[in-house]
Write the structure tokens for this entry.
Amino acid sequence: MRISIVVPAVNEAASIASCLEPLQPAREQGHEVIVVDGGSTDGTPSLAAPLADRVLEGRRGRALQMNTGARAASGDVLWFLHADTRASAAAVAAVVDACRGGRRAWGRLDVCLDAPGPAFRIIETAMNLRSRWTGIATGDQGIFVARRLFDSVGGFTELPLMEDIALSRALRDRTPPICLRQRLHASARRWLDNGVWRTVWLMWQLRLAFFLGADPADLHRRYYGARP
């Protein structure tokens, strides 16, 4: 079984090497790494090139970029990792084992935020527990999915925000997720930049608004402060 690890990136020069370097043993084992750049101006593609099997150019937007990577991928399983996330060798091995032998066809890992302090331990614990209870995963948790299942639900809905929630709901309707306890180390920069509890409150508001049918473009503006 072969895994294609798809990493969407835009202006991630500061973090792309840290994301890709831990994936090199996986490449040596025959898995592939595909980076899809959305128009970086900081040299991200050139930094990624020695550490990836392919670096593609795509239209900006995580859903668009991840679908571009999925179309180019040759693996039996697609694993979508954010460019500010680090996956250990144990995490890679856990994904391989979870998907081997025709078992349940999609899932995610637990997440650990890369900042000290009790507030971040509470946030990551809440994220992991909520995902287990609801069967919904976020992009920070490294969604992996069998290629056939991904294709059968039409891939990512090309939304400017909440594409991970939309995909999780479609996949959950087919089969429950595998919730692995191995952890991905994810960036806490949004919480650090905008305030911890202010960011938590905003994320809850946006998620509720999405479930109630709000326009994802408006949610994107509220989250990033700009139109997609």
Q: What stands out?
A: The domain at 3-111+134-189 is CATH 3.90.550.10 (Spore Coat Polysaccharide Biosynthesis Protein SpsA; Chain A). The radius of gyration is 16 Å. The chain has one domain: 3-111+134-189.
